[in-house]
Amino acid sequence: xxxxxxxxxxxxLALGLSAMLAACAVPNQPVGLATPAHLTPATPSxxxxxxxxxxxxxxxxxxYGFRDKTGxxxxxxxxxxxxxxxxxxxxxxxxxxxxxxxxxxxERESLQELLTERRIVRALxxxxxxxSPPIQIPSLIPASILIDGGIIAYESNVRTGGLGARFxxxxxxxxxxxxxxxxxxxxxxxxxxxxxxxxxxxxTIFSYEIRPxxxxxxxxxxxxxxxxxxxxxxxxxxxxxxxxxxxxxxLTVQGIKDRNWLLxxxxxxxxxxxxxxxxxxxxx
Length: 284
Fold this sequence. Notes:
Elements: H1 3-25, H2 31-34, H3 44-50, E1 59-62, E2 67-68, H4 89-99, E3 103-106, H5 111-123, E4 145-167, E5 170-189, E6 195-217, E7 223-227, E8 230-233, H6 236-257, H7 272-283
Parallel strand pairs: 1-3, 1-4, 2-4
Antiparallel strand pairs: 4-5, 5-6, 6-7, 6-8
Helix pairs in contact: 3-6, 4-6, 6-7
């Protein structure tokens, strides 16, 4: 084999290795095209919500808003008008209250639209045929409990770090970052305005990057350099969802202990799920 052909063979081998690494690091298709839409994944707090024992009766609650109170925007180079956390936390809270089986949310966030539709139905009452029965519109259900609060903190880079090593031109490095989101939730008696329970939950958002690399001479003239990498970012919206669900769990258990709402069976006070969140509250 001639020196030129040997050199070409080494270059072909290097290119082949680079192509293999690229194939491993990059999907064949964009994720949005390859993955169909599906239900939002359940979090550990979602599963705990579904394990709560039955209440003695439903508690009607109203949520007028659950706002982002952090004032935080995504860091550069993202848009300065893009917030760090979701602006749809009220919808997550309503779903968590309903999933618990303890609370029946009544519509308040779109109350004006609801009242407009009811007025339209009343306006149709006189335009029906004479033999038609009158249109009956039941009264709106009042809420006995008002649920309020918001996303009160979002801290970036609470902890950062990394580690790397290289031996004979072959190396691997990793970096990580931890952010933190905090939720505040309180229940209010609509008859007296008294704050019954208040809780705050914190969820860590974890991101990491792994980057392998090869940097070495295949002979005294040819240098082989190969790099790859993968990054995983925990979705912020799922972390906010989990923190809200955990807040609902702690709020429910506090209300049971304070006798603001009652268990269907008092023996369920010893159930594992209630004891778990009671013990966490004591330890915190």
